[in-house]
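Section 3.1: Structural characterization of target chains.
Under the original work plan, the team committed to producing a structural model for every single-chain target entering the pipeline before any wet-lab resources were allocated. The record below documents one such target. The sequence was received from the expression subgroup and is listed exactly as submitted; it comprises 438 residues.
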Amino acid sequence: MAASSADTQAGPEGRGPQTLAEWLRWQEALHMRDIDLGLERCRSVAERMVLLPPPYPVVTVAGTNGKGSTVAMLEAIFRQGGYRVATYTSPHLLRYNERIKVDGVPADDVRICRAFAAVEGARGGTSLTYFEFGTLAALAIFRETRPDVAILEVGLGGRLDAVNVVDADVAVIAAIGIDHVEWLGNTREAIGSEKAGIMRPGRPAVCSDPETPQSIVAHAAATGAELSLLGHGFHYAAEDDGRWTWWSGALAYEHLPRPSLAGAYQLRNASGVIKAVTLLADRLPVAAETIAAAIGATELKGRFQRIAGPVEFVLDVAHNAQAVEVFVATLKALPPARRTRVILGMLRTKDRRSVMTTLDGAVDEWHFGTVDARHGASAEELAATAREIGSAKPAFLYPSVAAAYAGAKTLAEAGDRVVVVGSFVTVGEVLRAMAPPG
């Protein structure tokens, strides 16, 4: 629902937003564009609020895929190490509050609304996007809560993302793939260049992509960032018993447990995480056994999340070609199901053909749900794409993702597997539908 012009101009007093839902609706109408990359607006308001530089170490995480897993493992390690940890992530699965956490606890509505009011009071005539408002609110909350370390996830790209108003003490870049081409470019080199913008002169940076784009290396050299690369500055090797070893120079951690997050690629993410932790060891020392325990116990909803039962559900927020390829490879490594049914919901802005072509070889039946979000693709659009790629799999169309879940659940029999994939909104809708009432 769009706010009126009067609401847009009003602050938190009088006719202005009061509840969290009202604030979020108001923010969506405040700026003329959903995405408007650039640091000037956000930096000017942050400076007025005296949010910069933050008085705690900051790890900033960028990447096309693997950001969420990287943040989750970093958070788990530092928390198990006894530190007070703040995280800022996006998007959320179920509630906006998930984006801003301290010690694993989402900020409550009152605290977020108070932070929004502070941002509104400081912005003056500066127009801010929804994401910029949230970023500034998170920084305001972290100033109040005084964490020992903050982990900030980039929303889009890196160089011009609002999170980049903060100078990272350690910059971490996860896997680079093709996504958001209208903003970041359509090659890994172009996208890598945007991600590299989170690095800072004289400060350490880590890239856990085994095929690091040369643009990242070049940017580090040009800016004087101290870049460590997977396969050069740090390494890992799987062991025969399922464990693995990580090393960097003379430092080594042996017989580590496999990451609890599913997928062989998580060893890459975990390797980058360990390197980042060691780079902060002078300020935030963490014992080797703590690192091992945390990596082996990290949990994150919507990342190859398996829910056991007579019918197994597997939920993953994968929404671009690279992520879906990795998802399918991990899916195929599971014991075969009697029948695999996929609930798919996507945004129109994503490469549906590539995603669905990859999925088509791994599933037996489509359940298309219309995504209730800005730029959400309809079930009819998804079905049309299935025809375009020549899929011969049966397809069922639904007016919503929740309806697709109900339909797939009704048809599924013992021994079947139902896969939920395509977007954060899709996974969130199914998790919401799965939740017991009340």
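Residues 130-145 form the longest helix (16 residues).
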